[in-house]
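This protein record is not my work; I was only asked to verify it. Take the sequence as given and treat only the C-alpha coordinates as open to question. I have pasted the whole thing underneath without changing anything:
***
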Amino acid sequence: MIGYLSAMQAAPVLAELAEADPRVVLVSQDLGQLYGFSDRFPERHFDVGISEQNLVGVAAGLAHAGMRPFVLAMAPFLSMRGFEQIRTDCGYNRNHVVFLAPFAGLEAGAWGATHHAIEDIALMRTIPGMTVLSPADPAELMRAVRVAAELDGPVYMRLGAIQPIEGYDAPFELGRAVRLHDGDRVTLLATGPSVAVALEVHDRLAADGIDARVLNVHTIKPLDEDAMLAAARETGALVTIEEHSIIGGLGGAVAEVLAERGEVGSLHRIGLRDVFCTEIGPYEELLRVHGLDADGVEQVVREHLT
Protein backbone atom coordinates (compact mmCIF):
# COMPACT_ATOMS: atom_id res chain seq x y z
CA MET A 1 0.00 0.00 0.00
CA ILE A 2 1.37 3.37 -1.04
CA GLY A 3 0.25 5.19 2.10
CA TYR A 4 2.16 2.83 4.36
CA LEU A 5 5.18 3.10 2.08
CA SER A 6 4.95 6.87 2.55
CA ALA A 7 4.89 6.37 6.29
CA MET A 8 7.97 4.18 5.95
CA GLN A 9 9.70 7.10 4.24
CA ALA A 10 9.26 9.07 7.46
CA ALA A 11 11.57 6.60 9.21
CA PRO A 12 14.84 8.39 8.34
CA VAL A 13 13.44 11.68 9.67
CA LEU A 14 12.22 10.02 12.86
CA ALA A 15 15.63 8.39 13.27
CA GLU A 16 17.29 11.75 12.70
CA LEU A 17 15.09 13.31 15.39
CA ALA A 18 15.72 10.37 17.74
CA GLU A 19 19.47 10.64 17.23
CA ALA A 20 19.34 14.27 18.33
CA ASP A 21 16.79 13.84 21.13
CA PRO A 22 16.54 10.78 23.42
CA ARG A 23 12.96 11.74 24.23
CA VAL A 24 11.70 10.79 20.74
CA VAL A 25 9.71 7.53 20.78
CA LEU A 26 7.40 5.69 18.38
CA VAL A 27 4.09 4.09 19.36
CA SER A 28 2.42 1.97 16.69
CA GLN A 29 -0.64 -0.13 15.95
CA ASP A 30 0.26 -3.65 14.83
CA LEU A 31 2.14 -2.41 11.75
CA GLY A 32 5.40 -4.19 12.38
CA GLN A 33 8.87 -2.69 12.22
CA LEU A 34 9.41 0.81 10.86
CA TYR A 35 12.73 0.01 9.26
CA GLY A 36 15.24 2.80 9.63
CA PHE A 37 13.88 3.60 13.09
CA SER A 38 12.91 0.36 14.83
CA ASP A 39 16.16 -1.41 13.98
CA ARG A 40 18.21 1.54 15.27
CA PHE A 41 16.12 2.34 18.34
CA PRO A 42 14.26 -0.87 19.27
CA GLU A 43 13.96 0.21 22.90
CA ARG A 44 12.05 3.32 21.76
CA HIS A 45 9.45 1.58 19.59
CA PHE A 46 6.32 0.42 21.43
CA ASP A 47 3.75 -1.62 19.46
CA VAL A 48 0.47 -1.90 21.37
CA GLY A 49 -1.34 -4.08 18.83
CA ILE A 50 -4.84 -3.48 17.51
CA SER A 51 -5.92 -1.29 20.38
CA GLU A 52 -6.19 2.29 19.19
CA GLN A 53 -7.64 3.78 22.36
CA ASN A 54 -4.81 2.30 24.41
CA LEU A 55 -2.30 3.42 21.79
CA VAL A 56 -3.37 7.04 22.14
CA GLY A 57 -3.44 6.79 25.92
CA VAL A 58 0.09 5.37 25.99
CA ALA A 59 1.33 8.14 23.69
CA ALA A 60 -0.39 10.82 25.77
CA GLY A 61 1.12 9.39 28.94
CA LEU A 62 4.58 9.41 27.39
CA ALA A 63 4.11 13.01 26.31
CA HIS A 64 2.87 13.99 29.76
CA ALA A 65 6.00 12.40 31.20
CA GLY A 66 8.22 14.55 29.02
CA MET A 67 8.78 12.27 26.03
CA ARG A 68 8.16 13.25 22.39
CA PRO A 69 5.94 10.49 20.99
CA PHE A 70 5.10 9.86 17.34
CA VAL A 71 2.14 7.58 16.66
CA LEU A 72 1.84 5.37 13.57
CA ALA A 73 -1.63 3.92 13.00
CA MET A 74 -4.19 3.47 10.21
CA ALA A 75 -6.20 6.64 9.66
CA PRO A 76 -9.74 5.20 9.83
CA PHE A 77 -9.20 3.40 13.12
CA LEU A 78 -6.98 6.00 14.75
CA SER A 79 -9.35 8.86 14.00
CA MET A 80 -12.60 7.07 14.88
CA ARG A 81 -11.82 4.46 17.52
CA GLY A 82 -9.28 6.70 19.20
CA PHE A 83 -11.18 9.97 18.83
CA GLU A 84 -12.19 10.40 22.48
CA GLN A 85 -8.65 9.74 23.66
CA ILE A 86 -7.15 12.06 21.05
CA ARG A 87 -9.63 14.77 22.05
CA THR A 88 -9.28 14.43 25.81
CA ASP A 89 -5.87 12.92 26.51
CA CYS A 90 -4.03 14.90 23.84
CA GLY A 91 -6.14 17.91 22.85
CA TYR A 92 -7.62 18.92 26.19
CA ASN A 93 -4.34 18.27 28.01
CA ARG A 94 -2.21 19.95 25.30
CA ASN A 95 0.03 16.92 25.00
CA HIS A 96 2.40 17.12 22.06
CA VAL A 97 1.78 13.90 20.13
CA VAL A 98 2.36 13.66 16.37
CA PHE A 99 -0.04 11.22 14.69
CA LEU A 100 1.13 9.72 11.40
CA ALA A 101 -1.98 8.23 9.81
CA PRO A 102 -1.51 6.15 6.63
CA PHE A 103 -4.41 4.64 4.66
CA ALA A 104 -6.26 7.96 4.55
CA GLY A 105 -8.95 8.45 1.94
CA LEU A 106 -9.83 5.45 -0.26
CA GLU A 107 -6.41 3.84 -0.42
CA ALA A 108 -7.47 0.70 1.42
CA GLY A 109 -9.37 -0.21 -1.75
CA ALA A 110 -10.59 -3.78 -1.65
CA TRP A 111 -10.68 -3.91 2.15
CA GLY A 112 -14.01 -2.12 2.02
CA ALA A 113 -15.91 0.75 3.59
CA THR A 114 -14.77 0.05 7.15
CA HIS A 115 -11.16 0.69 6.14
CA HIS A 116 -11.70 4.00 4.33
CA ALA A 117 -10.90 7.24 6.16
CA ILE A 118 -13.32 9.78 4.74
CA GLU A 119 -14.23 11.52 8.00
CA ASP A 120 -10.86 12.03 9.67
CA ILE A 121 -10.25 15.65 8.62
CA ALA A 122 -13.70 16.64 9.87
CA LEU A 123 -13.13 14.89 13.20
CA MET A 124 -9.65 16.27 13.82
CA ARG A 125 -10.61 19.83 12.83
CA THR A 126 -13.10 19.95 15.71
CA ILE A 127 -10.46 19.37 18.40
CA PRO A 128 -9.26 22.69 19.86
CA GLY A 129 -5.54 23.21 19.35
CA MET A 130 -5.19 20.32 16.88
CA THR A 131 -2.97 20.91 13.83
CA VAL A 132 -4.09 19.00 10.72
CA LEU A 133 -1.57 18.33 7.93
CA SER A 134 -1.94 16.52 4.61
CA PRO A 135 1.30 16.47 2.59
CA ALA A 136 1.21 16.03 -1.18
CA ASP A 137 4.25 13.83 -1.77
CA PRO A 138 6.80 11.79 0.23
CA ALA A 139 9.46 14.49 0.25
CA GLU A 140 6.94 17.01 1.58
CA LEU A 141 5.95 14.44 4.19
CA MET A 142 9.50 14.40 5.51
CA ARG A 143 9.62 18.21 5.62
CA ALA A 144 6.26 18.22 7.40
CA VAL A 145 7.45 15.74 10.05
CA ARG A 146 10.35 18.05 10.94
CA VAL A 147 7.96 20.98 11.32
CA ALA A 148 5.43 18.92 13.30
CA ALA A 149 8.13 17.84 15.73
CA GLU A 150 8.60 21.44 16.84
CA LEU A 151 4.95 22.39 17.27
CA ASP A 152 2.99 22.71 20.49
CA GLY A 153 0.02 20.43 21.12
CA PRO A 154 -1.24 17.47 19.07
CA VAL A 155 -0.65 17.13 15.32
CA TYR A 156 -2.59 14.87 12.94
CA MET A 157 -0.87 14.10 9.64
CA ARG A 158 -3.01 12.15 7.17
CA LEU A 159 -1.10 10.04 4.68
CA GLY A 160 -2.93 8.85 1.60
CA ALA A 161 -1.58 7.37 -1.62
CA ILE A 162 0.96 10.14 -2.16
CA GLN A 163 3.65 9.70 -4.79
CA PRO A 164 6.56 11.94 -5.82
CA ILE A 165 5.64 15.10 -7.71
CA GLU A 166 8.38 15.86 -10.20
CA GLY A 167 10.23 19.08 -9.50
CA TYR A 168 8.31 19.88 -6.32
CA ASP A 169 10.59 21.04 -3.52
CA ALA A 170 8.78 23.98 -1.91
CA PRO A 171 9.61 24.62 1.77
CA PHE A 172 6.96 23.44 4.22
CA GLU A 173 5.51 26.49 5.95
CA LEU A 174 2.81 25.75 8.48
CA GLY A 175 -0.50 27.32 7.47
CA ARG A 176 0.75 28.50 4.07
CA ALA A 177 -0.70 26.93 0.91
CA VAL A 178 1.77 26.46 -1.94
CA ARG A 179 0.87 28.00 -5.30
CA LEU A 180 1.94 25.45 -7.90
CA HIS A 181 0.49 27.27 -10.92
CA ASP A 182 -0.84 30.76 -11.51
CA GLY A 183 -4.17 31.35 -13.18
CA ASP A 184 -7.06 33.80 -13.25
CA ARG A 185 -10.00 31.70 -14.49
CA VAL A 186 -10.42 29.12 -11.72
CA THR A 187 -8.55 27.93 -8.63
CA LEU A 188 -8.07 24.25 -7.88
CA LEU A 189 -7.47 23.75 -4.16
CA ALA A 190 -6.25 20.24 -3.45
CA THR A 191 -4.74 18.33 -0.57
CA GLY A 192 -2.78 15.09 -0.20
CA PRO A 193 -2.82 12.78 -3.24
CA SER A 194 -5.44 14.98 -4.90
CA VAL A 195 -2.71 17.55 -5.57
CA ALA A 196 -1.27 15.31 -8.30
CA VAL A 197 -4.76 15.01 -9.79
CA ALA A 198 -5.16 18.80 -9.75
CA LEU A 199 -1.86 19.20 -11.57
CA GLU A 200 -2.97 16.81 -14.32
CA VAL A 201 -6.29 18.62 -14.67
CA HIS A 202 -4.43 21.95 -14.86
CA ASP A 203 -2.44 20.69 -17.85
CA ARG A 204 -5.58 19.50 -19.61
CA LEU A 205 -7.32 22.84 -19.08
CA ALA A 206 -4.24 24.76 -20.17
CA ALA A 207 -4.30 22.91 -23.49
CA ASP A 208 -7.65 24.60 -24.12
CA GLY A 209 -6.48 28.01 -22.97
CA ILE A 210 -8.09 27.84 -19.51
CA ASP A 211 -5.75 29.32 -16.90
CA ALA A 212 -6.18 27.45 -13.62
CA ARG A 213 -4.47 28.39 -10.40
CA VAL A 214 -3.40 25.33 -8.39
CA LEU A 215 -2.90 25.45 -4.63
CA ASN A 216 -1.46 22.65 -2.53
CA VAL A 217 -3.29 23.02 0.77
CA HIS A 218 -0.98 20.88 2.89
CA THR A 219 -2.15 22.53 6.12
CA ILE A 220 -5.88 22.20 6.67
CA LYS A 221 -5.75 23.57 10.20
CA PRO A 222 -4.66 26.32 10.52
CA LEU A 223 -5.94 27.11 7.04
CA ASP A 224 -4.27 29.69 4.80
CA GLU A 225 -7.23 32.06 4.79
CA ASP A 226 -5.36 34.77 2.88
CA ALA A 227 -4.71 32.39 -0.02
CA MET A 228 -8.36 31.32 -0.06
CA LEU A 229 -9.62 34.90 -0.10
CA ALA A 230 -7.12 35.96 -2.75
CA ALA A 231 -8.20 33.06 -4.95
CA ALA A 232 -11.86 34.03 -4.59
CA ARG A 233 -11.16 37.66 -5.46
CA GLU A 234 -8.75 37.02 -8.30
CA THR A 235 -10.27 33.98 -10.02
CA GLY A 236 -13.91 34.00 -8.90
CA ALA A 237 -14.36 30.24 -9.23
CA LEU A 238 -12.96 27.80 -6.66
CA VAL A 239 -12.93 24.00 -6.73
CA THR A 240 -11.73 21.94 -3.76
CA ILE A 241 -10.48 18.39 -4.38
CA GLU A 242 -9.99 15.81 -1.62
CA GLU A 243 -10.32 12.12 -0.80
CA HIS A 244 -12.72 12.88 2.01
CA SER A 245 -16.36 13.61 2.56
CA ILE A 246 -17.35 17.03 1.23
CA ILE A 247 -18.80 17.57 4.72
CA GLY A 248 -16.26 18.96 7.17
CA GLY A 249 -13.13 18.47 5.09
CA LEU A 250 -11.09 20.91 3.02
CA GLY A 251 -14.15 22.01 1.06
CA GLY A 252 -16.08 22.71 4.25
CA ALA A 253 -13.16 24.63 5.74
CA VAL A 254 -12.86 26.83 2.63
CA ALA A 255 -16.62 27.41 2.57
CA GLU A 256 -16.52 28.58 6.19
CA VAL A 257 -13.81 31.14 5.42
CA LEU A 258 -15.55 32.51 2.34
CA ALA A 259 -18.92 32.75 4.09
CA GLU A 260 -17.57 34.42 7.21
CA ARG A 261 -15.60 36.97 5.21
CA GLY A 262 -18.45 37.67 2.81
CA GLU A 263 -16.47 36.87 -0.33
CA VAL A 264 -18.38 36.76 -3.58
CA GLY A 265 -17.54 33.88 -5.89
CA SER A 266 -18.50 30.30 -6.64
CA LEU A 267 -17.29 27.19 -4.84
CA HIS A 268 -17.64 23.56 -5.84
CA ARG A 269 -16.49 20.79 -3.51
CA ILE A 270 -15.20 17.56 -5.06
CA GLY A 271 -15.09 14.64 -2.67
CA LEU A 272 -17.39 11.89 -1.47
CA ARG A 273 -20.85 13.41 -1.55
CA ASP A 274 -22.40 12.23 1.73
CA VAL A 275 -22.08 8.56 0.78
CA PHE A 276 -20.07 5.60 1.95
CA CYS A 277 -17.67 4.02 -0.50
CA THR A 278 -19.34 0.61 -0.66
CA GLU A 279 -17.67 -0.49 -3.88
CA ILE A 280 -14.92 -3.09 -3.66
CA GLY A 281 -12.01 -2.74 -6.03
CA PRO A 282 -8.54 -1.34 -6.67
CA TYR A 283 -7.77 2.13 -5.40
CA GLU A 284 -7.70 3.64 -8.90
CA GLU A 285 -11.13 2.19 -9.68
CA LEU A 286 -12.62 3.69 -6.51
CA LEU A 287 -11.28 7.10 -7.49
CA ARG A 288 -12.97 6.73 -10.88
CA VAL A 289 -16.29 5.61 -9.40
CA HIS A 290 -16.40 8.63 -7.07
CA GLY A 291 -15.18 11.16 -9.62
CA LEU A 292 -11.87 11.74 -7.89
CA ASP A 293 -9.58 10.80 -10.77
CA ALA A 294 -8.40 13.34 -13.35
CA ASP A 295 -11.26 12.55 -15.76
CA GLY A 296 -13.90 13.08 -13.10
CA VAL A 297 -12.36 16.24 -11.71
CA GLU A 298 -11.83 17.73 -15.16
CA GLN A 299 -15.47 17.14 -16.06
CA VAL A 300 -16.72 18.86 -12.90
CA VAL A 301 -14.38 21.84 -13.35
CA ARG A 302 -15.45 22.37 -16.94
CA GLU A 303 -19.14 22.18 -15.93
CA HIS A 304 -18.46 24.60 -13.10
CA LEU A 305 -17.02 27.14 -15.54
CA THR A 306 -19.98 27.06 -17.95
Summary: The chain has two domains: 2-159, 178-305. Residues 52-64 form the longest helix (13 residues).
